[in-house]
Amino acid sequence: MNNKTLGNKLFKSGKVLIAVAGVSVIMTNAVIPVISTVSANTNKVTPVHTTSNWRANDQKTVDNNMRSQDIDSINDLSNYNVVWGDTLTTIANHFHTTADELKNKFNIVNADFIVAGFELSNQAQFNSIGRELLSSSITSFNKNTTAAYLQKPTNVYRRSNSSNSTSNTEQKQVVTVNHDYSVTANNNVTDKDAADKAADQAAADKAAADQAAADQAAADKAAADKAADKAAADQAAADKAAADQAAADKAAADQAAADKAAADQAAADKAAADQAAADKAAADQAAADKAAADKAAADKAAADKAAADKAAADQAAADKAAADKAAADKAAADKAAADKAAQSNISSNFVAGNIETAGKYSKKLIVGFAGTDITPFTVTKVSVSDGSNLSVSYSEEELETLGFNTNPGDGKKFNGYLMPQQGSIGWDTSNLLVTATVRLQNGKVITVTQKVTPVIDYTESNISSNFVAGNIETAGKYSKKLIVGFAGSDTTPFTVTKVSVSDGSNLSVSYSEEELETLGFNTNPGDGKKFNGYLMPQQGSIGWDTSNLLVTATVRLQNGKVITVTQKVTPVIDYTESNISSNFVAGNIETVGKYSKKLIVGFAGTDITPFTVTKVSVSDGSNLSVSYSEEELETLGFNTNPGDGKKFNGYLMPQQGSIGWDTSNLLVTATVRLQNGKVITVTQKVTPVNN
Fold it and tell me: Considering the domain boundaries, does residue 366 fall inside one?
């Protein structure tokens, strides 16, 4: 058979390295030396790499490999070409990740197995080898070093397509790779042989290290000698450069001194020349100044004369302009006065009034201009708006159709009648305005407006003026019974559909037409029959609060219109509260300067309704504030429940150690609970003491 030679592709990882077809397998703790080429006829193996020449690359080497291949980010890592000595762990460390992360990223089944010479993105093609390595039992270890070794395998066999068995009598373990080749490991080698081989390797490694150290020392000495020679040469060159610089500096200084002397002389010469030139210039300037002054005087005299001539001419022109303006202003004023007079005549002569009315509604309006001596004009429009927001406009043509002469003057008048729209109840005269738009002879357009005198609706007026409401029975400011009705018997018949009552305590009650009939009211008064009756507050109520008591009646007139009338009931004076407030007194008994050492507080009179004083508060001009409870007042001798001849009187002293009550703004306030439970406060300002 012909020989088949395979290249030296290297497989590598943090724990496994293999070369295919010459295969070198390096496991975490086991190494199978390289098979460089394999012949199907001879089964010979030629080692390419062994454990002695394989070392895991340190992190710096891997980082340099990354840079040399322009791998700048983890996204570029798929293009990284694995280098002999790389491990998946050091590759992962470069991007601060883990070997397992890269294993998953690039679909590598065995994290301990990658192949040198191939990009990481192409490592998955060797997964079959990785799986077989994972399932193999290569187990020899050298526990005295950081790497583990296996002795050379005794045989490597070509695996035929028909059988995987061999005739060799030695016990073998076969790890299937690819390309129909197998790598075998000899399991008959003793652990002692492995240990001896590891020791030999360690000795060889030490010898190599010692030789490397000696070589480095010799190289360092040679480098030091060469550096010393260079330093001596550098010093000689520096000394020569310094001497050359000193000579150059002296020559430069001498030249500078000579240059300065020449410059000084030149400056002196220039100064003398400049002075002479300045003297001549001054003389020339003096002559020029005199000539200029003489010319300026002559020019000024000529300018003054020209100015005087111009002023006289300007004044004459101004006087003429003023006269012309005065004449024009007078003409304009005369015209404005004439226009105003014409406008005033038109405005003062414009009239509008009611002809036929029904209640407050006008069924017919008369509109026109009185007098026959007004300047001719044209009425271009008339507009009518009433109190019900009804608005109608009539154009010049419509007015002519209605019989109006829209161009009055020379004895011809603008007069006529305006009726509300068909079906309308009429013009609401409560706010009836008639406006005429007028174009004067000069083209100016003005408007004039007349407010039509309102028509009094005596029906509504009678109902409103005759509505009455008042108190019958009271308790304090509360009404226990209200009388409600319409006075007089001559009003037009109407219907009361509702009565509402609201009082000062926000109590609100409404009575329907049926409820009013039930209470005895005649809700359809007229022809001598009256609407009168009584309204009582709700059961359990203290009464109607008359402080703001309103009674409102909703009335439907005969024409169907609904109006409301309201009567405010006269408030009832609560003499209980009034007596308490007016009888509360407070004053000074003992004073020092503006300070009171003793206050008298009480209620004057004995005829007031019984009540209870629950608190007294005192505040003075120095912001001193003290409150006394009902119990504290009783302790101080006050009768907190005065009435029937018993008084609330007593004395209040300032706090111990205090200079006294400051009477500049001394207020005494009593909190009082009335018999009905209502709580009020009364305050007395004590008369200040003059200091």
Answer: yes
